[in-house]
Amino acid sequence: MMTVFFFIGIGAASSPASPPVRRRSRWASTLIGVFAAIYHPVGIAMLVANRENVGRVLGVNGVFGNVGVAFSALLAGALAQAAGWRAAFIVPGTLAIAAGVAFAMLVRGAQVGVPAREAAAAAKLSRADLARVFGGAHGGDRLRRRDLQRAPRSPCPRCSTSGSPP
Predict the structure, then answer these.
(1) Residue 11 contacts residue 96 (beta carbons within 8 Å)
(2) Nearest to 107 by CA among 11, 51, 42, 13
(3) Whether the predicted model's global pTM rises above the 0.85 cut
(4) Cα–Cα dist 57/47, whole Å
(5) In this predicted model, what pLDDT tens digit does every residue of 107-119 receive, in sequence order?
């Protein structure tokens, strides 16, 4: 249901493009950002649930996401030129609300609890494996106490031991 909230919220936030322009534009832009932030955690989780080829699904989503960003400026410019600058906000906002309503009707009978992928359940790591992974992240270059107790070296032979030039 968060995806429905995303579509309807972003559509409603896009629509109030009427005077006074500055104040409403600021709030509309803020709300568009707030509702757009819903997509990635919810939408990506929906995309990868019970998929065998997760990389391909994410790749296709990324390509079409970038194409959408590229064409959005062209669409907004065409709408603004054809019907005025408010149409560049109102038309996509209305389409987003319609997409939210359509999505809500389509997923009404869908399965609510999606079972976890079987491959993830099969990938169990032992404590030793986890220690190797996270121990490697912290370093083969572990500092010893004696390394920390050494006097700092001067960057050049002509400088004093404090590191400042003579």
Answers:
(1) yes
(2) 42
(3) no
(4) 7
(5) 886 655 545 555 4
